[in-house]
């Protein structure tokens, strides 16, 4: 994902709020791949996202 991307769907489920996005990604998020459709620069783009655990800087 890139800065400014707007998430449209996750694994085929439409996302209409930030809360909906969080709910879709909460369970088993670490080391799981999510197929997302994002709105980027006026077009729909399919991306794969692999969340990782945050480490301290």
TrEMBL record:
Gene3D superfamilies noted in UniProt: 2.30.42.10
InterPro entries: PDZ_sf
Protein name: PDZ domain-containing protein
Organism annotation: Mycobacterium xenopi
